[in-house]
Structures are given as structure tokens and as C-alpha cells.
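REQUEST FORM: STRUCTURE PREDICTION
Request ID: SP-0412
Submitted by: Lab K.M.
Chain count: 1
Length (residues): 203
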Amino acid sequence: MPTIYQLKSRFQDLLRPICKKLAAGGITANQVTLTALVLSLAEGLALWLAPGAALPLLLLPLVLFIRMGLNAIDGMLAREHDQKSNLGAILNELGDVLSDAALYLPFAALPFVSGELVVGLVVLAIIGEMTGVIGVQIGASRRYDGPFGKSDRAALFGLCGFFMGFGLTNALLYQILFAVGLILSGVTIFNRARNALKELETQ
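STATUS: Completed
RESULT:
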């Protein structure tokens, strides 16, 4: 099943000139990773302190897009500008999980949203990223299989934030969207575990 992650290489090509300028200016991959985390925490705090307020909800798609760009840039800085480090690997994985939790859990406080579905999505997101990392632990590659990875979660919540910011508060709509996200998250976990094992069989 197609996933937004498959567009990553094209997105990176667009960002490469910016990445080169940042590297020339002495900006490190870890600094970019931390910037993405701070931005996510700030937006998450705004969503939490003002549940249902239009401005934070309308800003969410922009914040998620910027975060996606920063995540792509920190990876390119690490790989293409010799900035790989063990600390960077830790910051990258933990930063993604913390950012997801900060940005998405505030949706559970909205009266027209099922808090259980939102919490379930965040929990499965964490398990999904953990499953991807386990691939490395058992000797396979870091798994990014879909159909519902980090970029897809961002698209779902960004779209919901956009709708909510313009006053669309249909409870059934969000129940359906988040339920579909929950199911796809479960499939993603299964696919990452299965494909990691398949990868080992071909080695």
C-alpha cells in the first residue's frame, strides 16, 4: 500500500540546497533535530492549553510540514555531511516519539473527539517506531514500512486540525478517521516485524 514516506527522496532533493547552506554555516544535525522537537513541544503546548482554539489548530499543518522538513534535513546533514553520531541516533528516535505524543495527545481533550482512539493511535505509533528500531537490534535494517508511518500520521492529524480550525466538529467524521488510522497503525506494526524477519531470511 502506498505511503507518504515513498516521496521522501523527492522531498530531500528540494531541501538539499538549504541543507548545504546550513552545513556551510556550521549548523549540525543534532541542532536541527532539537529544533524540530522544541517546535513540536511548543505547538503541542498551545493545543493543550487552548483546546479547540482555531489558531493552534490551523497552525498544526504548517508545524507538521516544517517538522517534516527539519527531519529530512537532519538526516541529510548526518549522512551527506559526515555528522552521524550515536547521540544523533538517540535524539532522532526519541525526538520523533516525543513530538508525536506532544502534537497528537491534545486532540484527546476535544469534546467531539474520542479520547480513547487518539490515545490508542499515539500508543500504536510508539509501538510502530519501536518495531522499526527492533529491526536493527536483530540484524535487519531500520524498518519504515507502511501503510501508516510518521508522515502518514502527520497528514491525518494535520488534515483534522485544518478541518477543526475552520469549525468542522462532526464527531462521527473524526471517529471514522481515527479508527481507520488505528487499524492502519496495527497493520504497519505487523508489516515492519514481518519484513524485518524476511530481510534476515535473505541475508
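NOTES: The chain has a mean pLDDT of 94.
Reviewed by: T.R.
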